[in-house]
């Protein structure tokens, strides 16, 4: 089992835990707006680290984004496999062509 699959499983297990004992459960208890807010905050922090942070800072922020993305996906009942399938579907296509196909 790869790292992202283990993360997805761990987040699923912790989702049902006591919110006072689990960060994942506390996010879910606060609802989708808080989950979305945290994902956005981590995205901004990663963008800042991209411009002015160290290698390690950007790696840490990237890990935070992946973690919070998995939390958000689970909150919407979307398996990580669906995202990976979409990436597979896009593989080998020009990013410009792919984006144009979405706006058409």
Extended strand count: 0
Q: What is the succession of H and E elements?
A: HHHHHH
Strand-residue proportion: under 5%
From the helix content, strand content and strand pairing, which structural class follows? Answer: mainly alpha
Q: How confident is the prediction overall: mean pLDDT?
A: 93
CATH topology: Helix Hairpins
Shape: globular
The helicity comes to over 70%
Main CATH class: Mainly Alpha
How many angstroms does the end-to-end distance come to?
38 Å
Which homologous superfamily in CATH is the superfamily? MazG-like
Major sheet characteristics: none
Number of helices: 6
CATH architecture: Orthogonal Bundle
Number of individual domains = 1
Radius of gyration: 16 Å
Unreliable stretches covering 5 or more consecutive residues: none
Keywords: Amino-acid biosynthesis, ATP-binding, Cytoplasm, Histidine biosynthesis, Hydrolase, Nucleotide-binding
Organism: Qipengyuania flava
Protein name: Phosphoribosyl-ATP pyrophosphatase
Family: Belongs to the PRA-PH family.
Descriptive notes:
The structure is a single chain. The mean pLDDT is 93. The protein has helices spanning 3-15, 23-30, 32-52, 55-75, 80-90, 95-103. It is built from 6 helices and no strands. The chain has one domain (3-103): Orthogonal Bundle (Helix Hairpins), CATH 1.10.287. It has 104 residues and is mostly helical. The termini are far apart. Helix content is 80%, strand content 0%.
Q: How would you summarize the topology of this molecule?
A:
Blueprint: H1 3-15, H2 23-30, H3 32-52, H4 55-75, H5 80-90, H6 95-103
């Amino acid at each position: 089992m790869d790292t992202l699959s283990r993360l997805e499983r761990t987040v699923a297990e912790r989702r049902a835990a006591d919110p006072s004992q689990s960060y994942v459960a506390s996010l879910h208890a606060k609802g989708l707006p808080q989950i979305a807010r945290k994902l956005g905050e981590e995205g901004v922090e990663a963008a800042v680290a991209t411009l002015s942070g160290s290698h390690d800072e950007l790696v840490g922020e990237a890990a935070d984004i992946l973690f919070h993305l998995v939390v958000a996906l689970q909150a919407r009942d979307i398996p990580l496999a669906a995202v990976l399938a979409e990436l597979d579907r896009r593989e080998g296509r020009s990013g410009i062509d792919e984006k144009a196909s979405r706006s058409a």
